[in-house]
Amino acid sequence: MSDLAVSLPAGTDSIGFEASGPRGPKPRHVFSRRNIFLYGTLIVVALYYLLPLYVMVVTSLKGMPEIRLGNIFSPPLEITFEPWVKAWSSACTGLNCDGLSRGFWNSVRITVPSVILSIAIASVNGYALANWRFKGADTFFVILIVGAFIPYQVMIYPIVIILREIGLYGSLSGLVIVHSIFGMPILTLLFRNYFSSMPDELFRAARVDGAGFWGIYFRIMLPMSLPIFVVAIILQVTGIWNDFLFGVVYTRPDTYPMTVQLNNIVNSVQGVKEYNVNMAATILTGLVPLVVYFVSGKLFVRGIAAGAVKG
Amino acid sequence: MSKSERPNQLFRNLNAKVASIPMVLTALVIFVGGSAWTVLYSFTNSKLLPRLNFVGLDQYYRLWSTPRWLVSIENLLVYGVLSLVFSLVIGFILAALLDQKIRFEDTFRTIFLYPFALSFIVTGLVWQWLLNPEFGIQGVVRGLGWESFSFDPLYNSEIVIYGILIAALWQGTGLIMCLMLAGLRGIDEDIWKAARVDGIPTLKTYLFIIIPMMRPVFITALVIIAAGIVKVYDLVVAQTSGGPGIASEVPAKYVYDYMFFAQNLGQGFAASTMMLLSVVVVIVPWAYLEFGGKKHV
Amino acid sequence: MTRLENASVSIQDLSLNFGAISVLETLNIDVAEGEFIVLLGPSGCGKSTLLNCIAGLLDVSDGRIFIKGKNVTWEEPKNRGIGMVFQSYALYPQMTVEKNLSFGLRVAGIAKDEIAKRIARAAEILQIEPLLQRKPSALSGGQRQRVAIGRALVRDVDVFLFDEPLSNLDAKLRAELRVEIKLLHSKLQNTMIYVTHDQIEAMTLADRIAVMKGGVIQQLDAPQTIYNRPVNRFVAGFLGSPAMNFLDGRLEKNDGNWHFVAEDVRIPLATYAFEKEPVPGAAVFGIRPEHVAFNSGSGWPFTATANVVVVEPMGSDTLVWLKLGNQNFTVRVTSERTPNNADTVSIGFDPMRASLFDAATGARL
């Protein structure tokens, strides 16, 4: 083995190698062509994505004379909150003039029970599908998932008839039921997959300990699955708050949710358009899902990823 | 002393069955029953109220000779093809850019995705304002001195559907980007190393190795975008209300208007049945490829 | 100490930091032409990191890397004259085996007949000719790893880098492929640098082993030297299964002779070759279980009696766990001589085969 090399301690002179030449880290320029291209593209695209939000905010803080004269991108010369106040409390929809506040509270009254009901149904259902399979369960589940792809337009009228028959057409409770129905496929899938991924031993141990269907659900599964409930809540709050179609079909003008109210304020007013009020109203309507989005961060991404991977 | 009897099959696992009642009702009554009901009544001449007075394919003949429906279909095709292509391309490029181990990745991702949290109504209204010819982008550019500049998609029936497309892409590409990014992150690091050792340029690595490996992600994205395209409704209502004239009508709006305004239920049912058909055309081959094909391998 | 003039791979003063964390510290290795070097160490010791630095997949913080006398410190991986085999194979899943092998060559714009020639040669060497038209998903783990080796082979390079290539395989296949890699090396006579945490792979494959810990090479030597004369307690404990016996005690000089003393155990060190002049103080005495004789009379420089605690029959031989004084001690014996639990037995060994370490620094004495 004498012809083999022996490692040298640091600092010993090396023979047979040029003393100069590349050494240490490869030089990296912060402003390399790659970085300029990469960050340049990203920043330009980011600006494009932020532009509408910026224009919305800026417009909503201007007075109408300034809007008529100026440029939609220029910041307001004189900040006014008048449009916000008007949008909230006295903008007209053509039917009434009490602003978005009515729609806001309607949306709250729709969203809260819908979220609770849809998640309660879907989580128990997903749990039954994951841990208590019975004959035929999978068939119904497949129908449910495939049904998620059917355009709503195909089913809205039959639901109108059903709701009319049970006396809930036009009421908030009717809309809550509709949201629970259409939230079911994705939420059931979400919960079924989550419960399926839990170790089966846990479930078996609980059964050996004598816990039944509801005992295991409430005492074992529920406490262990808070993250997925948060994901489901995020998914449902934004989804239901942003709904327009069901709101406009299944409620009456006095129970319209915020999105419908907003559209009516902006699009059905005769005469002079108050763009600043419109933009203030638009921001107000977008505020709830935006807050949910920015607060929930990664969980939102997880929610839409889960929601996206249907089937 | 009770004799131990074999329990009734129906009551085995009773709690699970009770818990599944909403699912069973939804699947059978709403999804299967509702769709079948609509298809059935599309063969009647129902007007204000649904009536079982069959007229064969009359509603469909009328549907396909109504200019508004034809415009809707044309719009849907243009909008559909373009939004598919652009969503996939832009979504993938953004994801690939974010996957370069960059700084502030979370910030960029948050910015690209926030429009997805918004309602289509909000998106439609803000783009209606941005594309306002008098005050919006066109007005600003003209104010800068370029007097002949013209960009008013929402008031030009030739290009109005592109105005809607811009808004839809603004809202939807973030989601596709997120899916693509998750797909890219799922690719084994060693693949990248192997490609580098083999001396394969980055672009070629993406085109010939990474994208083919991401086939499932692309299919998922495709299905999501396609399902969204057929349903497009709120955005058009908010941004243009179908105008100018009928230039930006879409099938979903056609259905709604005939059911609830024109009080011509039969037309609405026929139109919605066509929508159902188009989804079946997309979904069935996909389901066959994804689930049916595997059994034969 | 001389530096190898015609080293195939030469690493000089290589350091790598991630921020404040130092991953590799001033490493120096010279690898001779055609040599098989194994980088061995526990996970997180920096061995894979070092390999990635040699491959050019990681930028170094300081130092230089030469391959074939050429300074490649700033070179792209493809220009370094290396081929690499990965733990997860990293085969391109949508391409057939043949396309996997040829992809890099096609991108490099090599002529078609040359590509075909190289693939034919690699396929013959690795005996994967029947698999060429298959997709990676239709291959077994062993076949995939062969294809991965083939991808390095067709590149016609001087240096092969292996990043734990056998870790994803089951034990039987691992043993088979180990032999194949050894055969491949003797056939090709290429320089190979091989990362593993498996000491058997290291012992069987290597011309020299570099044992690494905490980003530092502890010992770089031929396998037998590392096994028999470990430079420190870490190396001694890392190699060998069952592990070397370590007794805590003191070095003492009585009547001009050095002894190792642990309570009532006194080991004479007359036959032990000290690295340097010993001094009295705390020390660790290490001896491998197979270097201890069992119930074999009194012809040894050191003999003692001990109580059997546990007996583990392993088939070919048996591991006997003892209490020597109050310290644990294992002995490997042939199966026929297996004692019973709670027996009292006699053991003996020659301290010539033992290793003594400084209790504080762990360095060999």
Give an overview of the whole structure:
- The complex is a heterotrimer of chains A (311), B (297) and C (365).
- Mean pLDDT of chain A is 84; it is low at 1-16.
- Chain A is mainly alpha-helical and 311 residues long.
- Chain A is flat.
- The longest helix of chain A is centred in the middle third of the chain and has 31 residues, at 101-131.
- Chain A has helices at 33-60, 64-69, 82-89, 101-131, 137-147, 152-165, 172-197, 200-208, 213-224, 226-241, 245-250, 258-267, 275-296, 298-308.
- The model of chain B has no long low-confidence stretch (mean pLDDT 87).
- The termini of chain B are far apart.
- Chain B has two domains: 1-41, no CATH class; 58-296, MetI-like fold.
- Chain B has 297 residues and is mainly α.
- Chain C is α+β, with helices and mostly antiparallel strands and 365 residues long.
- Chain C has two domains: 9-231, P-loop containing nucleotide triphosphate hydrolases (Rossmann fold, 3-Layer(aba) Sandwich), CATH 3.40.50; 245-358, Beta Barrel (OB fold (Dihydrolipoamide Acetyltransferase, E2P)), CATH 2.40.50.
- In chain C, 24% of the residues lie in helices and 35% in strands.
- Chain C has helices at residues 47-55, 97-107, 112-126, 141-154, 171-188, 199-205, 223-228, 233-238; strands at residues 9-18, 21-31, 36-40, 62-67, 70-71, 82-85, 159-163, 191-196, 208-213, 216-221, 245-254, 257-262, 265-268, 281-287, 293-294, 302-313, 317-324, 327-334, 344-349, 355-358.
- Chain C has a six-stranded mixed β-sheet, with helices on both faces. Chain C has a five-stranded antiparallel β-sheet with strand order 13-12-11-14-20. A five-stranded antiparallel β-sheet of chain C has the order 15-19-16-17-18, with no helix packed on it.
- Chain C is elongated.
- The two termini of chain C are 21 Å apart.
- The mean pLDDT of chain C is 88.
- Chains in contact: A-B, A-C, B-C.
- At the A-B interface, α1, α4, α5, α6 and α7 of A face α1, α2, α4, α5 and α6 of B.
